[in-house]
Amino acid sequence: MLRWLGVASGLLVAVIGGALLRSAVLSRGHERRDSGHGHGHGHGHGHRRAGLVGMGGAGGLVPSPSALVVLLGAIALGRTWFGVVLVLAYGLGMAATLTAAGLLLVSLRDRFGPRLTRFRRLADFSPLGTAALVMLVGVGLATRALAG
Fold first, then answer.
1. Are the beta carbons of 21 and 132 closer than 8 angstroms?
2. What SS3 class is residue 78?
3. pLDDT tens digits for 41-72?
4. 46: closest CA among 93, 92, 103?
5. Cα 63 to Cα 5: distance, rounded to the nearest angstrom
């Protein structure tokens, strides 16, 4: 059961990474087309925030050895449901923390990004690199879960 949960969470991370990569490629093409007609970057970033929430959820699904120890300890004490609740709380907390960290980084980039013009070229490629890395990590998690 734990193996398939690891595979599912890895595939979910890979799918979200693929969606982020597609969005970054489409956004990059949109910015190139719009760059010559005199208006700024005015569309919202709801797609990025939705991707971050999805990533946080997927991160909360990734099996953790310490959560497994807590669950096995609760089973040994005859309090299985308590162990399940603790593991669920751990997963939800991990998901919330990863989502909050991602949203904080996006808001910091939106706030301070325009001031850092010397890093602009690097910042233009960061969504592509990040999305590709997320997809690679997802495939790695799924492969590792299948192998183990």
1. yes
2. coil
3. 444 555 566 666 666 666 666 667 778 788 88
4. 103
5. 7
124 contacts: CB under 8 Å, gap ≥ 6: 28
Percent of the chain exceeding pLDDT 70 equals: 67
Among residues 147, 139, 127, which one has the least CA distance to residue 9? 139
Select the more confidently predicted residue: 1 or 44: 1
pLDDT, position 10: 83
What Å distances lie between residue 23 and 3, 4, 18, 131, 148, CA to CA?
Answer: 30, 28, 9, 9, 32
- Name the residue among 124, 104, 96, 114 with its Cα closest to residue 28: 124
CB-neighbour burial class of residue 49 (10 A; exposed 0-12, middle 13-18, buried 19+): middle
Render the burial of 84-113: b for 16+ CB within 10 Å, e for the rest. eebbeebbeebbeebbeebeeebeebeeee
Mean pLDDT of 24-49: 60
| Distance (Å, whole) CA 51 – CA 134 | 11
Q: pLDDT class for 78, splitting at 50, 70, 90?
A: very high
